[in-house]
Amino acid sequence: MSIFTAPNGDLLAADPENHLIVRVRRDGVLQIVAGTGIRGFAGDGGPATRAALAFPTGVTMDREGNIYFTDTANSRVRRVNPAGIIDTVAGNGAINDTGDGGPALAASFGLLRGITADRAGNLFVADEQAHRIRRITPGGIITTVAGTGIPGFSGDGGPAIQARLFEPQGAAFDPEGNLLILDRRNGRIRRLDTRGFIATIAGGGQTPADNGVRALDAFLFPVGIAVNPAGTVLFSNPFRSHVLELLRDGTLRVAAGRGTRGFSGDGGPALNAEFTLPTGIAFAPEGGFYVADTNGLRI
Predict the structure, then answer these.
(1) Is the four-CA dihedral 78, 44, 14, 9 of positive or negative sign?
(2) Cβ atoms of 293 and 276 closer than 8 Å
(3) Which of 30, 47, 68, 160 is least enclosed by beta carbons within 10 angstroms?
């Protein structure tokens, strides 16, 4: 389950098992943004609440208030505009890895995961199966910005399009405009800088650990990622039931979770809490952060 904090403080969530995109308002009211709860593909051009989705995974919002999500089992990226109308912005529905340099609507994807947007309105999607990060411009053109399509690890210090990724799960922008990529099977966070070059900034055995967590354990198949305006990075480790915090000085520490699976700790210190499967991460506007505990069916 992916979550995203809207500028007004509302929380958006992709609910793959129920085939829905939902909004949790700041007053606690839950609203359906897109989907009927029945798996399928239908509804483009009409109200999003009457559309059929299939295992939506990632969700984000641009500066104009458009909500974008990866409709994963439909192999498409879809948009809900502020009026509540849904359409497709990328993907032809085929499961493949094609289309670079052409219209995003004619492109195909392998297995879409996370999605984020930059200030210019470009969308960036992680394709786990194609081992790429791809960009969709506001004009509807798609290109690869990181990854060769071959799984593995290589390329640090060089152009990101010549580097190998292994099942990237998501990405988020830091305050300098660099794209931080969660390279899951490589157990790393990698930075795609504004020049198009890639480097590992955490993981791979080179990150100092603090607060009772081994760096090797911290980067065991990480999933969700978020960055706040101060440059602090949060990411989730569902297999260790932790949320980890990476500070700007490179220090890694546990931000939430005691490392055992379960549900406990509400009302107490986050370090004493238990999660069953923490996945999505989002910063809260007033401080703190949200965690989607997928198997616990809670945020």
Answers:
(1) positive
(2) yes
(3) 30
Give pLDDT tens digits for 85-111: 999 999 999 999 999 999 999 999 999
Other Cβ atoms within 10 Å of 248 Cβ, number:
11
**In the structure encoding, which two tokens stand for residue 176, read together?**
């300098």
Residues 224 and 292 sit within 8 Å (Cβ to Cβ)? yes
Of 287, 285, 291, give the one whose Cα is nearest residue 273. 291
Here the contacts of 250-255 (C-beta below 8 Å, separation 24 or greater) are 250/201, 250/202, 250/207, 250/208, 251/208, 251/210, 252/202, 252/207, 252/208, 252/209, 252/210, 252/213, 252/215, 252/218, 253/209, 253/210, 253/211, 253/213, 254/211, 254/212, 254/213, 255/289
Residue corresponding to tokens 């440059």: 231
Residue 206 has a pLDDT of 54
What pLDDT digit, counting tens, does each position of 135-150 carry?
999 999 999 999 999 9
pLDDT for the residue 294: 84
Following CA atoms 29, 277, 179, 214 in sequence, which dihedral angle do they give, to the nearest 10 degrees? 140
Q: Say how far apart CA 176 and CA 58 lie, in whole Å.
A: 23
